[in-house]
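pls design
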C-alpha cells in the first residue's frame, strides 16, 4: 500500500488510443493519449498482456473469466471499487503503475505492472492517469537515445487515425 495519490496538477488524464504492434520492434505496445492535448505515451508490453487488453478493447468475452476479469469480480465481491489507475513512475526504462481502490471510505494504493493496471482499468471503467514526471521522463529518454527514430515514432503515434490503428491491430 502507498500514501494518498499525487495532486491532479501532477497527473495527466489519458485514454488508451490503441493497441498495436510496434512497426520497428514487432513488439506489442499500448498507446496512451493525453485527453486534453497531443501528448502520447507508448508502453511496450508482452504478448499475453496485450491479448488481455485486446480482449477488452474488442469487447470479446471468454467462456471462463480471464485473470483481470477474476480480479474485477473479486473486488466487486468485497465491495471494493477501482477509482483510478496511475502510470506513476519510469525507472531504468521500466514503467510502474498504481491501482487506487476504495472500500468503505478507505483508500488503498496497490503497486502493479502498467499492463495489468490498464487491463483492470478498462474492466472497471475507471479513469487512467500518467504522472507528468513520467511523460517528461519518457520524452527526455527518447530524445537521449536515437533522436531521429524516437521523434519519427512520436510524430507517427501522434498522427494515427482510427483507420491506421486498424492496420496495426493485434
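designed seq:
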Amino acid at each position: 500500500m502507498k500514501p494518498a495519490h499525487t495532486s491532479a496538477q501532477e497527473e495527466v488524464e489519458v485514454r488508451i488510443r490503441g493497441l498495436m504492434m510496434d512497426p520497428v520492434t514487432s513488439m506489442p505496445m499500448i498507446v496512451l493519449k493525453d485527453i486534453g492535448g497531443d501528448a502520447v505515451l507508448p508502453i511496450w508490453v508482452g504478448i499475453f498482456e496485450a491479448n488481455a487488453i485486446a480482449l477488452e478493447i474488442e469487447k470479446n468475452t471468454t467462456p471462463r473469466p480471464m485473470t483481470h476479469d477474476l480480479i474485477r469480480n473479486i473486488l466487486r465481491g468485497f465491495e471494493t471499487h477501482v477509482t483510478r489507475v496511475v502510470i506513476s513512475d519510469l525507472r531504468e526504462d521500466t514503467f510502474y503503475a498504481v491501482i487506487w481502490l476504495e472500500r468503505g471510505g478507505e483508500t488503498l494504493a496497490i503497486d502493479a505492472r502498467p499492463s495489468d493496471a490498464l487491463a483492470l482499468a478498462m474492466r472497471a471503467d475507471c479513469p487512467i492517469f500518467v504522472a507528468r514526471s513520467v511523460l517528461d521522463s519518457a520524452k527526455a529518454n527518447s530524445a537521449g537515445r536515437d533522436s531521429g527514430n524516437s521523434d519519427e515514432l512520436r510524430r507517427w503515434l501522434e498522427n494515427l487515425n482510427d483507420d491506421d490503428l486498424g492496420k496495426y491491430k493485434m
